[in-house]
Amino acid sequence: MIPYDTEKIAQIIKESTESSQTYKKGKMFEDLACYLFETIPGVVIAQRNAMNQYNTEEVDVSIWNDGAADGLHFLNSLFLVECKNWSSAVESVDVNWFATKVEDKGLDFGILLAANGITKEKNDIKRAQSILTGYLRKHIRIIVIDKEEMLNLKTTDDMIFLIKRKICELVVNG
Predict the structure, then answer these.
(1) pLDDT at 121
(2) Of these four, 4, 48, 71, 121, which has the most CB atoms within 10 Å of its CB?
């Protein structure tokens, strides 16, 4: 168990939320994602802001996971993290776009860090959740972590437990 600098997490979220520059907001959120994951034993940031060879899609953060016993041993070696530091919730079309990126890369897991979660409107939440449930049939798991959940992280064990809980909720509840 490695403690997170909770003041650093809160400061990055605060500054990124208050920034009026879209690029800066996004970069700060990606910096936070890297900090949260590279602190976990056995996890390395493989690449950031990598474009595919056709310049048609960008991967915010790709994670290499060595599967350390006190880390993310229950996940495969490579997964993607998409960072959405938007003032509103991420809509179903963007949830689908990220899930498609994960699938196109031949991966089975991704994390959507969405500052304000995914859409909260009754019909939209059903659509976004339906997309995530649909990808389960393809053996692809996409979980969503919001800024409130990040603010509650005290240690790497908290993040590991949160990921496990989110995977279980996704699989069991759809």
Answers:
(1) 62
(2) 71
Round to whole Å and give the CA distance between 71 and 160.
7
Token readout for 143 is 């979980």
pTM for the full model? Answer: 0.94
Domain containing residue 106: 6-173
**CA dist., res. 112 & res. 86, Å (int):** 12
- Classify residue 41: in a domain, yes or no: yes
Whether residue 21 lies inside any domain: the answer is yes
174: confidence class by pLDDT, cuts 50, 70, 90: confident
Of the chain, the percentage scoring pLDDT greater than 70 comes to 97
CATH number of the domain that residue 56 is part of = 3.40.1340
